[in-house]
Amino acid sequence: MSMLDSVTDNVLRTPYQRAVADYWNNNPNDDRINVKLGEVDGLYHHHYGIGDYDPRVLEGPAESRQERLVAELHRLETAQADHLLDQFGAVRADDRLLDAGSGRGGTSIMANARFGCRVDGVSISEYQVGFANEQAAQRGVADRVEFHLRNMLDTGFEAGSIGGVWTNETTMYVDLFDLYAEFARVLRPGGRYVCITGCSNDVIGGRSSAVSKIDAHYTCNIHPRGDYFKALAASKLVPVSVTDLTAATIPYWELRTHSELATGVEESFLTAYREGSFQYLLIVADRVV
User: Residues 189-203: pLDDT tens digits?
Assistant: First the structure.
């Protein structure tokens, strides 16, 4: 057994987790859209966007249309990350933030640039961790932004050592009760958790073929909306605001249908959002004593 196998055996607790990690480790080039959008300015995200798109990107010379589309999609996904970071309010330079399911690290790098604080990211993908650490090194912030091969259900950080933690479209890969128990452990009293996620309508989401297609496309397990609040309450994480971002994310998906980078899941998202079986939710919660 190699040293890497020994490490990943401690990180990957189930066959499902190993399958997810194997996909990202062995097929990074399948993820064309996130890579292409990240090349615009070197901020590589693994999430979707919010806000209205500029209709002019669909006009003008045909030969540069795809380039305009890529730039605009990236602007919308960066706007989503900015909106997530807005929810933390004032963060001190001596605070520590945690990006749970950090992907290629774009939002962590943005958080450090905004707040000047230390940011740690965790991912179960060796490839993603290596890529993200390279990005931090290239930007000269590796001493303040670091990514770790760890499981978000068992981050390894000391109890009460984290001032704020976020998940950005990653909760559908884990058990929410286990996840929030870990966040409650690492957050200091009064610390904040911010979540942006897709979730199914508690009443009709389970019967939606569009939601099922999204699940199948990403090999994930979309949680019903109500499960988030049950799991938060179980770990004494108290919601302070809940915002439905569904209307704000629909333009992103409409624009993506025009891109040559479209993956085929766009219509499922648009159908699910429009029929009300799926929602794009922002939850802000604080840890109480």
Answer: 999 999 999 999 999
